[in-house]
Design goal:
By secondary structure, the chain is an alpha/beta fold. The strands form 9 sheets. The protein has a 7-stranded mixed β-sheet with strand order 5-4-17-16-18-19-20, sandwiched between helices. It binds 5'-O-(acetylsulfamoyl)adenosine. Residues 271, 317-318, 393-396, 418-423, 444, 510-512, 524, 526-527 line the site of 5'-O-(acetylsulfamoyl)adenosine (7RM).
């Protein structure tokens, strides 16, 4: 691995301040307030977190020690007793929030449900009692393979309530991927549904579970609990498979939350690395509860009257932290949407915002780029005036997409929080606090209080401003992953050994390249394996993509390096075009020239490859690894199981 030494290629100096009205009413109201908070946390992180833990959460028993740090293993709030389901539900029942909407759900075929905190409590308690009846005990792992329906969140909260760690597997994963995860986690029970709606079609979730379990494929699984959603026929194996609506009949809705040790495992969530099989990222209870609570409160600037909508799936960390746990711990109204924007319903997101008067909207750059492609008239024809704050997550956002989001969706009045974080970090790490930190399009801005983020070289030396380096965190934080499930060694190797510790200082290695500008703003350049080097100049693929996307003909672009004897690597750009453009020699030349004009000759793509679509994971991340193989003219090797649509890859191969 080599140090990315990118020069400041992307010159993005526009600064967007929150309106005075926004700042005055915000949780954190000024840059000075942010800086004070940041300095206080830095000076004494333990005291900072302890004070918030005391103020913001309910504990059955207070901790003895705030942090026990035996690098790279951390324990937070040692010997404290807490239950996140209690903090998300029970404690709100004795307040006016009892009858406030906890969860608003909009179903794909147009059905909808709202659950108040009191109703959510009843559902979760019953679900927990059914799990217990099926033999699930504290410490048993429960697999959750569900569509985006309230029962997905209910199942998670029910598990948390009785101390059974959940492992949610995104409903778009195949039976094989599900089987691997159930086996790695030694799951005892699986919660699923007869099916789920996905872009006008039904995903046969129960059939996939059957496939995962056939021929004793996941021997630890004893029971399957099935929620009815689509009503299509599924086979139910007697003794193993049970309908939720049957078992809940006559079940008690009294199920006190189990006092959990602060360090008891809350969940495992699998995430792909650059090598090997997916890693089971382990998160525990107390620290995760506190960190997701605080980040939700300050970053999304929650008010009690808000309707908050995060468009992620609960199968990803974003859904865990910012649909379920963070918002509910704050007593917020969280919206859950089963649908996805698609050609047959390009305005569906804007309909949901209008219908429920959504105030806070959190989505991904890939979605924003899709909306740009679909056209401004869709959002323009809906009333989006309820929106107060916008957020993005998942990948770097190109300034063009940022500006479109700001202008068309936010009406130039809503701050945008570009939030950098990972499955491993549990919660948002680098982000604007929207009333305090002015934004720059494409920058996640500054670290959350208590987060000692830095950009360093491989020896751990901070790199000068505006030079590329590795994004690291220098001090433990409450929601950091505790280990790779069943593999402490891999945890150590993957995250703590790329940069060797020195003088007792450990570096959490995020796997992202970044630079920090003269204002202390972080610019995340993408995974370090996405950084390419041309004639000794290191380039973030993102910057080139951003340049390409700023050309009117380009809808989406993915740039990879192709090994080149002379220059180290040559830039290959995979490009999809806006509707009314077609590939041509002229366009090829024009795009190369455009990149030269936007960035400089060093960034001129050697090749532009036009394509109808780009290969993406089910969570919308472009699979550059596959594109790199294609560009290099090699066979695509390694795991392609996370690819959303295989035919995209096959087509690209044919076109080569
Ligand atoms: C939350 C999530 C993590 C990786 C991370 C980055 C990339 C996420 C941003 C971002 C630039 C952002 N978890 N990433 N957010 N890059 N700006 N705001 O996505 O585990 O699935 O992915 O995603 O590369 O390392 S994740």
């Amino acid at each position: 691995m080599t140090v990315p030494t990118i020069e400041s290629i992307l010159h993005e100096n526009r600064l967007f301040h929150p309106t005075a009205e926004f700042a005055q009413q915000a949780q954190i109201k000024s840059l000075q307030d942010y800086e004070q908070l940041y300095e206080r946390a830095k000076a004494n992180p333990e005291a900072f977190w302890a004070e918030l833990a005391e103020q913001e959460l309910h504990w059955f028993q207070k901790w003895d020690k705030v942090l026990d740090w035996q690098p790279p293993f951390a324990k937070w709030f040692v010997d404290g007793k807490i239950n996140i389901s209690y903090n998300c539900i029970d404690r709100h029942l004795t307040t006016w929030r009892r009858n406030k909407a906890a969860l608003i759900w909009e179903g794909e075929p147009g059905d909808s449900r709202t659950l108040t905190y009191a109703q959510l409590h009843r559902e979760v308690c019953q679900f927990a009692n059914v799990l217990k009846q099926l033999g699930v005990q504290k410490g048993d792992v429960v697999g959750i393979y569900m569509p985006m329906i309230p029962e997905a969140a209910i199942a998670m909260l029910a598990c948390a309530r009785i101390g059974a760690p959940h492992t949610v597997v995104f409903g778009g994963f195949s039976a094989e991927a599900l089987r691997d995860r159930l086996n790695d986690g030694q799951a005892k029970l699986v919660v699923t549904a007869d099916g789920g709606w996905r872009k006008d079609a039904i995903v046969p979730l129960k059939d996939q579970v059957d496939k995962a379990l056939e021929d004793n494929g996941a021997p630890t699984v004893e029971n399957v609990l099935v929620v009815q959603r689509t009503q299509q026929r599924v086979s139910m194996e007697p003794g193993r498979d049970h309908w939720w609506h049957d078992l809940r009949q006559g079940i008690s809705s009294d199920c006190p939350a189990e006092p959990m040790d602060s360090e008891d495992m809350l969940f495992i969530l699998y995430t792909s690395g650059s090598t090997g099989k997916p890693k089971g990222v382990v998160h525990t209870t107390g620290g995760y509860n506190l960190y997701t609570h605080m980040t939700t409160k300050w970053i999304f600037d929650l008010r009690d009257t808000d309707v908050y909508w995060c468009t992620a799936d609960v199968g990803w960390i974003t859904g865990h932290s910012y649909i379920v746990y963070g918002p509910l711990s704050n007593g917020a109204t969280t919206l859950m949407y089963e649908g996805a924007p698609r050609a047959s319903n390009p305005g569906c997101f804007w309909d949901v915002i209008e219908k429920y008067g959504v105030n806070i909207f959190y989505t991904a750059p890939t979605a924003i780029r899709a909306f740009i492609k679909m056209g401004e008239h869709h959002p323009r024809s809906r009333d989006l005036s309820s929106l107060r704050l916008l957020g993005t997550v998942g990948e770097p956002i190109n300034p063009e997409a940022w500006m479109w989001y700001y202008r068309v969706i936010g009406g130039e009045r809503c701050p945008i929080v570009d939030t950098w974080w990972q499955t491993e970090t549990g919660g948002i790490m680098i982000t604007p606090l929207p009333g305090a930190i002015p934004t720059k399009p494409g920058s996640a801005t500054r670290p959350f209080p208590g987060i000692l983020a830095d950009v360093v070289d491989l020896e751990g030396n901070p790199v000068p401003d505006n030079e590329g380096g590795y994004l690291v965190v220098r001090y433990p934080w409450p929601s950091m992953m505790r280990t790779v499930y069943g593999d402490d060694d891999r945890f150590r190797r993957t995250y703590w050994e790329h940069i060797p510790p020195r003088d007792g200082q450990y570096f959490y290695f995020a796997g992202d390249g970044a630079r920090r500008d003269e204002d202390g703003y972080f610019w995340v350049m993408g995974r370090v394996d996405d950084v390419i080097s041309v004639s000794g100049h290191r380039l973030g693929t993102m910057e080139i993509e951003s340049a390409l996307v700023s050309h009117p003909a380009v809808a989406e672009a993915a740039v990879v390096g192709k090994p080149d004897e002379l220059r180290g690597e040559e830039i290959v750009a995979f490009v999809t075009l806006e509707g009314h453009y077609t590939p041509s020699e002229e366009l090829d030349k024009a795009l190369k020239q455009h990149v030269v004009q936007e960035i400089g000759a060093l960034a001129r793509p050697g090749q532009i490859r036009f394509s109808d679509a780009l290969p993406k994971t089910r969570s919308g991340k472009i699979m550059r690894r596959l594109l790199r193989s294609l560009a290099a003219g090699q066979d695509v090797v390694g795991d392609t199981s996370t690819l959303e649509d295989r035919s995209v890859l096959d087509k690209l191969r044919e076109e080569a």
